Amino acid sequence: MFEKEEKKVEYVELIYDLIFVYIIGRSNSLIHDVTDGFITPGTYFLYIICTLVTIQIWNFTTLYINRYGKNSVLDHIALFVNMFLLYYMADAIQDGWQTLYYRYTIAWMLILVNLGVQYTIKYIKCQKEKPWELEDLRQHVMKFFVLAGVVAATLPVYAITRVPLTPVAMVVGIVLTSFTARRGGALVPVDFPHLTERVMLFIVFTFGEMVVAIAIFFRGDISVGKVYVAAMVFLIVVGLFVSYEYIYDHVIDRELHTNGIGYMTLNLFLIFALNNITMGLEFMKEDEVDLRMKTIFLVASFFIYFTFLALTNIYAKQNRRANVMIYLRLVCISGAFAIAMALTYRYPRISLLVSAIYIFAVLVMQISSRHDGGFYIPWIKKRED
């Protein structure tokens, strides 16, 4: 039997991911300005839309590379063109974004056109070589040109009404992706090992942003209180990372046959949660942010992270799948955490300790519940007698 050739993550994909780390960081900056100690709903909604549009573009590109990319000169050019356009999208994400709406939207539209052109070229090449892929390619060609048209149509609407329809265009993209995934996944399944690695690397880059952001807790004079706070924040980041590392290395079945859309969607929310946690930790340093908002923001972000991390169990290996009891334990631990945070929100140092305990409690539950015989550390091999 012929073994399937391993599809490796190429260097150009890694450099491409860095622009998304930058643009998401720009989106994060939107909500650092608070009013009376709270983030305004409009500002937070804008942050959500900008973040989701960015990750949606990353999803589109990643799926193309995974299923059709050949690390060719053409693939390199297409990625670099998108990177160039993403810089303009990133520059438009700032206070007073209304004046830069056209720049943001035109760059977004051109990225979609670029993807449509890539699929069109692939469609032409596959006429004789791989006719079974033509239907999937045709659907994607239509999807990207239709979506580019929808994005373009928001420009005159904004010029007349001053109402940005960016959320509508994003939802249209989700609907069209769901439609093409139904049949395309069966015709041309994704290379799941490559896809999981690409997603993992993007999440690692997101953790990298978190590692850089918490550097603020290590600056200035050294005192017992400051060292304590820095240690708690560092433990929180370590616990979150090890939780993801365990799931990726020991739970996810990377040999599955799937269209990849569900897996990428779950990880989209993980990335979103990690960005919120980063901002929540930064808020702990800012006195102008209301204590209640700090607590609610951090607790909600932790809940989103662990909820979607638990849902990745859909893609678990047969012998690593969670049962109902694991989910019930997670709910109970999370409920106790929420109560403890509500009781201690006036004391940020205690809240940080409670958060660190919660994260490591979930980690211990996560590891020990999947193995018989008690607590088990998968990266320490058992000694053979």
Question: How is the secondary structure organized here?
Answer:
Blueprint: H1 11-28, H2 41-68, H3 73-92, H4 101-129, H5 134-161, H6 166-187, H7 192-213, H8 224-250, H9 261-283, H10 291-311, H11 324-344, H12 348-368
Helix pairs in contact: 1-2, 1-3, 1-7, 2-4, 2-6, 3-4, 4-5, 5-6, 7-8, 7-9, 8-12, 9-10, 10-11, 10-12, 11-12
Give the topology string: H per helix, E per strand.
HHHHHHHHHHHH
* Helix-strand category: mainly alpha
What is the CA-atom radius of gyration, in angstroms? 22 Å
Q: Uncertain regions: pLDDT < 50 for 5+ in a row? A: 372-385
Tally of contiguous helical segments = 12
Query: End-to-end span in angstroms?
Result: 37 Å
Question: Which shape, going by the Cα principal axes?
Answer: globular
Estimated share of beta-strand residues: under 5%
The average pLDDT is 85
Taking the sheet with the most strands, its summary is: none
Helix content: over 70%
How many DSSP E strands? 0
What does this structure look like?
With about 375 residues, this protein is an all-alpha fold. Helix content is about 75%, strand content about 0%. The chain has twelve helices and no strands. α10 packs antiparallel against α11. The chain is globular and about 70 Å long.
From the structure above, extract its key features.
385 residues; mainly alpha; 12 helices; 0% strand; globular
Q: What's the short story on this structure?
A:
The protein has helices at residues 11-28, 41-68, 73-92, 101-129, 134-161, 166-187, 192-213, 224-250, 261-283, 291-311, 324-344, 348-368. With 385 residues, it is mainly alpha-helical.
